[in-house]
Amino acid sequence: MLLLAAIPCKAQLHLNDPTVYKIIYTSGFNGKTPEHQNKIWVFAGKEQTLVTTEKDFTRRGAYPFEVSLIDRGKNVQYLFAFLNDQEIISSTDTALRKQTFELSNETRNILGYTCKKAKTVVNSNTIELWYTDQLPVKGAPTILGQNLGLVLEMIRNGNSTIAAEKIEQQQLQLPSFLTAPAQQTDLLSYRDEIWKSRFTTIPLFHNQVVNFSDSSLTVPDVFRFAKGTVVVKKIKMPAIDSSSTVFLDLTEQSNGDAYDRTGSVFLIPVTKKESFLDGLKKGINALPVYTNGNGKRYQGVIATADYDPPVELLRFFTPFGVRQFNHITLKGKQWQEAVPYRQDISDYAALFNKREVYIGIFIGNYDKGGHRVSANITIHKGDAGKQQQHIIPLFNTLNIMEMAGQEYATLFNNENGITVSFTLKQPLKNARLRYITTGHGGWDGGDEFVPRLNTILLDNKTVFSLVPWREDCGTYRLYNPASGNFSNGLSSSDLSRSNWCPGTVTNPFFIELGDLEQGDHHIQVKIPQGAPEGSSFSYWNVSGALIGD
Predict the structure, then answer these.
(1) Does the domain formed by 2-194 have CATH 2.50.20?
(2) The CATH number of the domain covering residues in 226-548
(3) One-character DSSP codes across 262-324
(4) pTM score > 0.70 for this model?
(5) Which has fewest Cβ within 10 Å: 43, 81, 451, 464?
C-alpha cells in the first residue's frame, strides 16, 4: 500500500506495497467527450489512494500541478503541489470527515461492476456518484466519495461527467519526482501558493503615496512629477503570448485627502520622436499643442506624426476618504479599508510584450497627504489561437499634468470637439476603438451631474452615439466615509454621474469599426459641453486607442 512518511517541516510520498488498481477516467459534457484530454489516473490500494492525471504522472504536463494521497486509516487527504522544478509544497486536508451523502437503492452496471448511487450537494451543485463495493479497494477521481467504495462515475448537475473507462491491477513504481521532499505548510497558505503560481505577477507600485507636495520621500525607481500627483516607473515586462489574458490590479486608500478624485493608470509610448515623458520632465511646453478654434491651447492630447498620447490602461475614481476617515461613525455602516480596482487590459498586451515600458499613476489632488496606492499586472496563459493586436494611440484629453498647468479638457465647448487624423500604412482588420469617457463639473449644473450625448464619427460617418451615465453610485457607499450628507437623506456618493462613481472603475466602450483600408482617416469626438457658471466650468476626459488585427 501507499504510505506517507513525514519528517519535521517535510513530507514525502513512499510506496511500500506496489500492488494497486489503476483506474483511468475521462471527462465529458452534455454527452460529448473531448479528444486529447488529460485523463485522470487513480491508483487505489487497500488503505490509500493516489489521485493524479496522465500528464502529471508522466511529467508531460505544465507547472503547476497537484497530486493527492487519501489515507483512509487517518481519514485525511495529503496534498502535494509541484510549483516548478525546484519548489514542492505539501499540506493536509480533513474535508473527508465532513462529507455526507444521500444513499439510494438504485443500481447500474458500469464496466461489468454493479454500482450503487449516492448524492450530495456542493456549493449549490448536485453531484451524483456511482460506486461499487465489488473490488477490494476504495477511491474516486476527486476528493468526493473516497470512502463510499470505488467511484466509477460522477455526474455534476446532470450534464458534466467523469467516468471510468478502464480498470486494471498492476505493480506500480512511483516516478522519482513524486518522491522528492516537499515543504509542509498550512492549508490556506498551500492553496494561496498554488493559486499564485498559475499566473505571473509583475509588481508596479507598492504602498506608493500620490500627493501634492514637494517634500515627499523619494522612492527608488519611482519618478514623481507635477508636485507628486503623478508617479512613473520603468518596468521590464516578460514575453506575453497572444493567448494570454492580462489584468491590471490597483488598490487605493486615502492618506489624508477626503475628496473623490480622478485617477488614471497609463502607459507612455516612446517609439516616436516626442513623448509625454518629455512634458513630465521638461514641462507642458514640451508637448505638442492642439487647438480647435475655441481660443485655448491643449497640450499633448492627440496623436501626431511625431507624438503619441498616453495610453490609458485604467480610469478610476477615488472615494471620499476610504480608511483615513473611517473614524466617522454612522450607525449600520462598516467602512471598507481600501478600494480594489481590476481591469482586463489584454487588448494592450502587444504594448508590453518583451519591452521596457513607462507606466504611471495620476490622482488629481491638492492634499499633502494625498492617497496611497499599490498596483500590479498579472499575466494568465490561455489557449493558443488568438492573434496579437495592433494598437494605435489616438487621443487622451485627461490632463495628467493638471498640477503642472496642463489645460483642462474644455475643448468640447466648440462644436468641432476633437479631431484626430491618422494614416494606416496597411489595412487594419476588425478595427475597434477603445473609448473611455467621463464628464466633470461638480456643481448642480455641471456636466458631472448632467447627461450629455457622446458622438463619434469616423471619416465623417457616425459610428457611436450614446449618453454615458452611472445610476448605481449608491452601491459603493461603504467606501465613502467622508461623503457629504444632504437634508433629503442622500449622500454625495449616492448621486448619479456622467459615467463614474466615487470608488469605481470606468469601463471602456468598444466601438466596432470594421475593416479599415490603407491610407488617411480621421476620428472626431463631439459632446455638447455645458456652459460655465461663474468660476465653475465643465470638461470631459476622453481617451481612445485604435485596436485591430
Answers:
(1) yes
(2) 2.60.120.230
(3) EEEEEEE--SSSB-HHHHHHH-GGGSPEE--SSS--EES-B-BTTB-PPEEEEEEE--S-TTT
(4) yes
(5) 451
